[in-house]
Amino acid sequence: MAWESIKQNLLAKLAERIEQRGDVEHQQDLHNLAKIFYGRFPPEDMRERSPENIYGCLYGLLRFMDDWQSDGPKVRIFNPEIQTHGWESKYTVLVLLCKEMPFCVASVRGELNRRNIKIHTIASCNLATRRDADGRLQQVLAAGGDEEGQSDESLMYFEIGRHSHPETLAELRDTLTDILNEVAIVVSDFPAVRQQLRNAMLIVRESACVTQGHRDEAIKFLKWLESNHITALGYEYLVVEGSGADLSVKVDPAASLGLLRLRKTQGPGDLLSDLHTLAPEELHRRQLSFSKSQQRSRVHRLAYPDYVEIKQFNDSGEIVGQHRFIGLYTAAVYTTDPLRIPILRRKVEQVIKLSGFQSEDHEGRELARVLESFPRDELFQSSIRELFTTALAVTRIQERRQTRVFLRRDIHGKFVSCLVYIPRDRYTTGLREEIQNILSTAFGARESEFNTHFSESVLVRVHFVMRLDPDAAPDYDVNEIEEQIVQATLDWEDRLRLRLIEEYGEEQGEQHMRELGTGFQPGYRDDFDPRVAVMDVKAILGLADESGLGMSLYRLLEEGDEQLKLRLYRQGSSLPLSDVLPILENLGLRVVSERPYGVRAASGERYWIQEFSLIYSLAHDIDLDEVKDEFEDAFARIWYGEAESDSFNRLLLGTRLSWREIALLRAYSRYLRQLQFPYSVDYIAETMANHLHITAGIVELFLTRFSPVFDGDEDWRGQREMAVESRILDSLEEVENLGEDRIIRQFVTVMKATVRTNFFQEGADGKLKPYFSFKLRPSAIPDVPKPVPLFEIFVYSPRVEGVHLRGGKVARGGLRWSDRAEDFRTEVLGLVKAQQVKNAVIVPVGAKGGFVPKLLNADMTRDEVQAEGIACYQSFIRGLLDITDNRTDTGVIRPAHVVCKDEEDPYLVVAADKGTATFSDIANAISADYDFWLGDAFASGGSAGYDHKKMGITARGAWVSVQRHFREMNIDVQSTDFSVVGIGDMAGDVFGNGMLLSEHIKLVAAFNHLHIFIDPDPDPAASFIERKRLFDLPRSGWSDYDASLISAGGGIFNRSAKSILITAQMKARFDIEQDTLTPTELISVLLKARVDLLWNGGIGTYVKSTLEAHTDVGDKSNDSLRVDAGELRCKVIGEGGNLGITQLARMEFGLNGGRSNTDFIDNAGGVDCSDHEVNIKILLNAVVARGDLTLKHRDELLEAMTDSVAELVLRNNYRQVQAISLAEYQANERSGEYRRFISSLVDAGKLDRELEFLPSDEELADRKVHGQSLTRPELSVLVSYSKAILKEELIDSDLGVDPHLATAVQTAFPAQLVTEYAEELSEHRLHREIMCTQIANDIINRMGLNFVSRQRKATGAPIADVARAYTSVVEVFAIADTWEQIEALDHSVEAHVQLDMMLNLIRLVKRAVRWLLRNRRHELSPTGTIAEFAAGVEQLREALPNMLRGDAAERYSSLVERYEEAGVAPALAAAVAGTIQAYTALGIIQAAEETHAPLLEVAELYFFMGERLELDWFSAQILASNVENEWQAMARDTYLEDLEWQQRTLAVGVLRYMCEDRNLVKCVQQWEINEEALLQRWRDMLSELHAAVAPDFAMFAVANRELLDLAQSSRRE
What we know:
Blueprint lengths: L1 H20 L2 H14 L13 H16 L7 E5 L3 H4 L6 E8 L4 H11 L4 E13 L5 E4 L10 E10 L9 H36 L6 H15 L3 E12 L6 E4 L5 E2 L8 H11 L2 H6 L2 E5 L13 E8 L5 E11 L14 H12 L6 H11 L3 H6 L2 H14 L6 E6 L5 E9 L5 H15 L3 E7 L5 E9 L10 H12 L2 H13 L1 H11 L5 H6 L2 H12 L7 E6 L8 E9 L5 H10 L2 E12 L5 E11 L7 H16 L11 H5 L3 H16 L6 H10 L1 H15 L7 H18 L6 H16 E4 L14 E5 L14 E6 L3 E7 L4 E7 L6 H15 L6 E9 L8 H21 L3 E3 L2 E3 L15 E4 L7 H10 L18 H4 L1 H15 L10 E6 L5 H6 L6 E7 L3 E4 L5 H13 L18 E4 L5 E2 L2 H7 L5 E2 L1 H9 L5 E4 L6 E2 L5 H4 L9 E2 L7 E4 L7 H9 L7 H4 L1 H23 L4 H10 L1 H24 ...
Parallel strand pairs: 24-25, 24-28, 29-30, 29-35, 35-38, 36-37
Antiparallel strand pairs: 1-2, 2-5, 3-4, 3-5, 6-7, 6-8, 6-11, 9-10, 10-11, 12-13, 13-15, 14-15, 16-17, 17-19, 18-19, 20-21, 21-22, 22-23, 23-25, 26-27, 30-31, 31-32, 33-34
Helix pairs in contact: 1-2, 1-3, 5-6, 6-7, 10-13, 11-13, 14-15, 16-17, 16-19, 25-26, 25-27, 29-30, 32-40, 32-42, 40-42, 42-45, 42-49, 45-49, 46-49, 50-53, 51-53, 51-54, 52-53, 54-59, 55-56, 58-59, 58-61, 59-61, 60-61, 61-64, 63-64
């Protein structure tokens, strides 16, 4: 109804357009034509047609009709276009005009269908027109009109598939013209043909030679035909002339009608053949006969017409002619009961009679049913005997599942009729086509057609008609044809059953047939013989479950060497092509085709068989027997993720390498990429594929180097290695590409740098391990990125990759879960660089590891990601332990199946890092599995270790730095409110703990990855309580903060918001002018806020230098919000988190007046705590192993010592930042020393200036001009380096185990352990390392970064002697006690006062150490030295104030006064002031020992001489001299040493004059008399020195020489 409505609406609009736009003379014609033509137009075909278009089409039709000669049809084919035709269509249009007659549309449509031309629209109409004598259209008459002289015409309109060039359809136009002409002839001759049919009836009636019964039946048949049961197409009359052998038959052309006017038929030949072969009686009986035309009709239906032939006899019974009618039986003929069709009913009755069956019997009913459905052509054309034989046989096979074939050849040899009966369930189009091919081949058919009949029977009947060449009689065997068809129709399952029984025996074969045999789909059966199916059944039975994969690589006999076939078998679902094709392509195989086949088992399980046709192009001589098993194994490994799919797999077939050996090459290529090797993994793989023999050699080199099964000793192995390497390098002569040459050489180099591998180790399951680990010596690899670690372990598998870098044999550092798949080593290298300096405070040097899970995807849940990460972490840990030595009571044990190319190396300690904070227990469990000697000390921080977050140790350590920064600004953050902007949230360890370390924190803003927290004017007390609440929650974010506690104008904002409204309070607090900001913009503003502290407790890099680009930072996710250091307005930065600020940014911040250290200084508490844990566990685990302590009690003891460990860690943090402050305090004064120290480290290869971003000498000189020197971040680097270097040098030195030195170990352990396990402590496995670490840290913390180097350079003493001297001096002068008293003055006196007091202690130590190194060379032993000097120094310390005279006494008093005024207690002030002269005690004590004089008497004389000879003044002048270079500094120190020696020598010399009354003055006076001459020279020298404005080093040298003469003279007897 809707379409009809659309149509009527369009026609109404069409009528309007005709009225508006049509020519007046055409308007009525257009209206009439529209009603007639569009009135019959299918409504559904009117959709999407516009009024404009149908108007244009209508006008076009009218113009088409305008000029037509009615003697023939008019045909036009065109593509309507607006410009040309006034309307358009997306189809090609076919328009035909002819006289009104039947069959036109059907005939045209038949031809179009024969040509497979798609028809979109058909419309036709009959209309009446008036034309002039020339055929010009004068008027289109209205429908229903009947006027004299009108022309009745048919107009046909077709829209067919678009042809871009319709002019190419000229042949179609001609054919359609011919067809319509044929229709016209048929229609015009139709009455005459009917008349001839009536005439034929008369002829039959008058044929006396034919029995009456036959004549009656024939007449009835002809009358039946006349009753519209045939569409008569034509007629011809055949004339028979002559007699006997001279008979001839010809067509009477004058009599021909319809199509037979146009056709030359085989009628004469057929009739002549009958005349020669049939007896007269048979000819009489067959007066009415039937046959088929060999030429299709183009009129009405595109089918083969039927001939009805009536023979005409003369009175003698001889044939004189034959009437032949050609036509198409109407459709009713093929469905009408044959008993109701004359002639046919008679045949049927006679067949039934011949059968002897009774109509009420089953057989009779079946026969009747067969005959009723029998093909009508067969009923017409078969003889009664032929029909009987076939029908009876068909009746007998009904309801039997068997195949039968019945053939009937046309009497004239023009065709063969084949009836094929097939079981219904086996019939398919494919089977029908196969049978058709069999028949066509057997008969040499020129053409064939078929008709399929389905009924309720179990059999399907297919009627084939084979069109033959009558002149070429085929030679065929009916039985052979039937056998071929039977074989073709034989059920595939039956053949499979036979094959399965043959393969498995009857019982199992039948079982497999029931389970799987019926499940093979038709497509499979079409493509494969049951013999192949047996092979596939075998493979399917081998599949364990849905994860199972079966396969078979094979080659067909007829295929070339490079061609292969691969069959894959899978339960459940087929393998996705998108997954399989890349694997095959990476194996070097080009997939030509893929065919999937489903097999459904009786149980309902689904199996899939996928066959791939493949070509391998890398080699053309593949021996399938050699590669088959390896290929199938490799494919399965790749599929299950045990091996990767990439270009390296192309080597499998070409090199005969195993999948593991290829994975080995892949692993090394991945390692090279991590080393920033300039060639991609794909290019490396391509290089390997281009040089297969070299690739095989590289693998051979590895196997020779590391295979644990080797026939020969290590010397022979080495010779074999050299031979293989030489062969590889010789082969490079053939490699022309420089890039490929470099790749191959680098592979050889890296393999030679490899010192261990687990490649040959087996797992617990007895199989080789699914991951590889390689221990390498990076220094042996050219151009490796700096810093270059001592060792590294690279772990590779398809699931995970990771690297562990170690700066030394005893090293530690966390393992990070990295997300940087392409450059995780670069990330780890940056971390190990920081770890190196961070670990300066502990025994191990820096180490760091990182691993990347490679199989994570966005669809994984959080739990799935975590589970995968843990599995990867476990593989990584195992890879590390696989190739690490173990330690037992009997010594160090090498790992099994590992060839070690390095020395013993049992120390491996890891820890938690980003992403692995809870993984320590996992690592320790693996350590236990390996029975690793460190036990759960292997990974610190586990459940039986120290929980860093619970202790808050990292944050507390960083807070020590914060306190130091503010204390040096005279602010106590524990008692004074201060403002903070933070990075992180309260759920985080560093941020959460840090923001609870002072109740005076005013957290004005903070942000994490989800929210921005702003509190413009926070209440410190209330906000502290709320932060504490959040911290105590299991999980929390800023969204959990109680918004009611936030001050006015603040709030919590989502970072996902498009914009944030800026309140007035926010504007005022953060100096914001805009009304709205994006979250990113707001964070940038917060980072630049005017606050006291910027606290970093998060992840990411937020501040860079103005000299850096964002790309230099390596944190792309924060590029949009990162700020420059020059924009920071905070006073202090606390770096609890790593990498929050770049090193260049820290330096810039420091140069601009900001205060910060570095992340590795601030957050060193975590690593220090872990190291304490490891060292304590090593100690206690030995006790547990001995049976003197249970594991439970050990854990309880660990927990009980938590606070003690924290105190040790925080003390280290305190001392380290104090050391930086001391270095900074002297930075300007000692800039030259620092510059020289940096240069010396660089020259020694121990420091990379660029890597650590340390300024050049020119930059330092420029800073000096502007009153600036090294910043705290730079000094942090130098302090850490100096500690690390000193620690390693002490470990490698002959420091020995002096009883006093050994006590340094105790400072690294809680007092409880020192008390309870003193003996075990002395036997600690890392005793020496701990001792050296503690001594090194103490030296650098107190004495500064270049103390040792200056002492060594000045004295030439070995480093161990410097350490011994230092230890001795610290003990002798009670430096530690005094130092702690100064530290206790925090917030009691200003920080600079404390630093100044410490500098006085440092000067004392320097002088005293130098004295010992000069005067006790090769005799230094701390225990002995302390025993020699301690008591005397203590005695002199108490007497010193009263002994000082002159300038020395004045300086002492002045210093004491200044310290007391600053708030220092008098006793401490006096103790520190006394250090100016304290070092002289060593010489005085020695002098007293040498002279056997009382100590105090020698001391008093010493100081008296100093005042008497103005030596104190001279000493002050030397100290005050300007030092411009290192030589001058060394000269100054030498002068002071000489002066001290000379003063001591003078005192000893004067002692010779001591009277019995011990009068000092008299003694000196006597000495002066004896040394008058030299004494006068000295006084003259002093006069010149006093007169000089600025005495120089030349004057000091001369003066010292004069004094030396006096001193030496004084000692002469």
